[in-house]
Design goal:
Strand order of the largest sheet: 1-2-3
Radius of gyration: 13 Å
Helix content: 25-40%
Structural class: alpha+beta
Number of strands: 3
Strand content: 15-25%
Shape: globular
Order of helices and strands: HEEHHE
Distance between the termini: 22 Å
Number of helices: 3
Length: 95
């Protein structure tokens, strides 16, 4: 994932530290949402992402708790232009 842009690289770094994932993919879907009404005038790239994360850290957590954890970890990004995440979050045993 060395070709990640700035926001994606920051998100990857924050999630690597906090979740120590055994697998993580990050896809920038921003171009697909360029004219999306929900962007509310947000300019530029790196606003919409799809992520798949596999981490032991999700053990014992339900789906909502997992999503809340990731959203909290990425709160600084939401405050600076990240608009939407599509998340697929698993423990290694769930694969």
């Amino acid at each position: 994932m060395s070709d990640l842009k700035e926001r994606a690289a920051r998100m990857k770094a924050a999630l690597d530290v906090a979740l120590q994932p055994v697998e993580m993919t990050i896809r920038d879907d921003s171009k697909r949402h360029a004219h999306h009404a929900g962007r509310n005038g947000i300019e530029g790239d790196e606003t919409h992402f799809t992520m798949t994360i596999v981490s032991e850290r999700f053990g014992g957590m339900n789906r909502v708790a997992r999503h809340r954890l990731v959203n909290e970890l990425l709160k600084p990004e939401f405050e600076t232009g990240l608009h939407a995440l599509s998340l697929k979050l698993f423990t290694p045993a769930e694969l």
